[in-house]
Amino acid sequence: MMHPGVYRYVDSPVTLQMRVQAARYVLPGDVAVSHTSNLSWRGLSIGDIAVLHFGTNSTLNVNRPGMRVHRFGGQLHPTNLGGVPVLGPDRTFVDCATLLPIPVLVRVGDWLIANRHTDLGTLHAYVTSSHLDGVQRARLALPLLRDGVESVKETDLRLLLGNFSLPEPTINPNIFDATGRFIARGDLAYERYKVLVEYDGWQHERDARQRQHDHLRRERLEANGWRVIVITAIEPLEVKTRVREALTQRGWQARFGV
Fold first, then answer.
1. How many helices (H) and strands (E) in the chain?
2. Cβ–Cβ under 8 Å, residues 232 and 201
3. What is the reported pLDDT for 214?
4. Residue 230 burial (CB count, 10 A)
5. 217: pLDDT confidence band, cut at 50, 70 and 90?
6. What average pLDDT does the segment 185-195 reach?
7. From CA 53, how far away is CA 159, in angstroms rounded?
8. How far apart are CA 104 and CA 113, in angstroms?
9. Would you give the end-to-end CA distance of the chain in angstroms?
10. How far apart are CA 194 and CA 175, in angstroms?
11. 99: three-class secondary structure by DSSP
12. What does the pLDDT look like over 64-108, one tens digit per residue?
């Protein structure tokens, strides 16, 4: 039994889609998937995924175990995604600001932009003009968002480098040699100093062909003067030391006390 009067076959796996559809049978008819559950529905699992979040214009108190229903007071304007009413990505970013710390909220914003649920200009306009709950925190996160971030770990690494007052890298640039021939696409590049920082969280999952490709790619970068720093786990002090030393060796001068 999913809820009173709502059943599933005992051998059916409990998926997010099943949980959402089952919840809609026992909630007001206008509910739309919201907050972090909206992110999960779009493909990003973040925050407490055990609790389903919905928005409604109903004034009834309809919270049930494993669900949280937010009353939107007539401001519920859902769209359809995958056959289910959901709130828009910009509204979801602001709603998630009521639940998530700023670094995690930056993850959310970067991911929504990278996956084309919204774009930086649209999100900026929405947040700056909004008066919804969570908007103050959303506005604090907004200047930290960047276009073109390809993974949440890239976001984490970029924010960490910023916390150490290191220069801001270019995100995912194409790198060329002196003749204009394409060499590689980087993660976080300090182009002035030719230092490339890359997050590699799947280093043990490659087959032999992929490992050979990676070795050749790195050789090409190093042959063209790039210092490549591969981060396999985001350990703050280690990251700071390795990146700072590489930049210093290439001529970067830290501000006093950094």
1. 9, 11
2. yes
3. 84
4. 14
5. very high
6. 96
7. 28
8. 14
9. 58
10. 10
11. coil
12. 888 999 998 888 899 999 999 999 999 999 999 999 999 999 999
d(CA 163, CA 179): 36
Task: Calculate ∠ Cα 121-36-63, nearest 5°.
Answer: 130
Give which of 55, 137, 57 is closest to 88, Cα–Cα: 55
Residues 6 or more apart in contact with residue 29 via CB below 8 angstroms: none
Query: Quick one: tokens of 156?
Result: 């984490």
What is the full DSSP assignment across 187-228?
A: SEEETTTTEEEEE-S-TTS--HHHHHHHHHHHHHHHHTT-EE
Q: Round to whole Å and give the CA distance between 179 and 192.
A: 18
For residue 22, the Cα-to-chain-centroid distance in whole angstroms is 28
* Burial of residue 50, with CB atoms counted within 10 A of its CB: 0-12 exposed, 13-18 middle, 19 or more buried: exposed
Task: State the pLDDT at residue 205.
Answer: 62
Q: Confirm if 26 and 49 have CB atoms less than 8 A apart.
A: no
CA distance 181 to 33: 47
Q: Could you give the CA distance from residue 209 to residue 150 in angstroms, rounded to a whole number?
A: 23
Q: Are strands 84-86 and 79-81 parallel, antiparallel or unpaired?
A: antiparallel
**Of how many residues is the chain composed?**
258
Q: Are 185 and 175 in contact (CB under 8 A)?
A: yes
Beta strands in 64-172 (DSSP E): 67-71, 79-81, 84-86, 170-171
